[in-house]
């Protein structure tokens, strides 16, 4: 199966296990057509979660802009490497021992 195959409901019903195996193995999706009804998409759970995460991250216009700039930078290989910053030591909540 390619990334977006189209099959009928009848074909899906006859080959459900193998279609599900193929979809989960390739992280692709299948459009299932139905008579007198709108089509549906069958995709793997991992792919679905990935779509949900992308939608969540792109919901904010400011965040979407930052992410798209970062992707463009990565595509151009113009990345900068930085050392990790060590977290500050937690302050003693009890205060002085006086």
Commentary on this structure:
The chain has 98 residues and is of the alpha+beta class. The protein has a domain at 4-43: YefM-like domain (YefM-like fold, 3-Layer(aba) Sandwich), CATH 3.40.1620.10. Helix content is 47%, strand content 18%. The chain contains four helices and three strands, in the order βααββαα. Strands 1-2-3 form a three-stranded mixed sheet. A hairpin with a 2-residue loop joins strand 2 (29-34) and strand 3. The longest helix has 15 residues, at 61-75. The protein is elongated, with a radius of gyration of 24 Å. The mean pLDDT is 85. InterPro entries: Antitoxin_Phd/YefM (IPR006442), phD/YefM_antitoxin (IPR051405), YefM-like_sf (IPR036165). Antitoxin component of a type II toxin-antitoxin (TA) system. This is Antitoxin. Pfam families: PhdYeFM_antitox. Residues 86-98 have a biased composition (Acidic residues).
């Amino acid at each position: 199966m390619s990334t977006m195959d189209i099959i009928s409901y009848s074909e899906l019903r006859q080959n459900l296990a193998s279609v599900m195996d193929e979809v989960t193995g390739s992280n692709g999706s299948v459009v299932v057509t139905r008579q007198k009804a709108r089509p549906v998409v069958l995709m793997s759970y991992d792919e679905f979660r990935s779509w949900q995460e992308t939608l969540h991250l792109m919901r904010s216009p400011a965040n979407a802009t930052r992410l798209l700039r970062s992707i463009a930078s990565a595509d151009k290989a113009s990345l900068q490497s930085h050392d990790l910053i060590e977290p500050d030591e937690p302050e003693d909540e009890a205060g002085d021992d006086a």
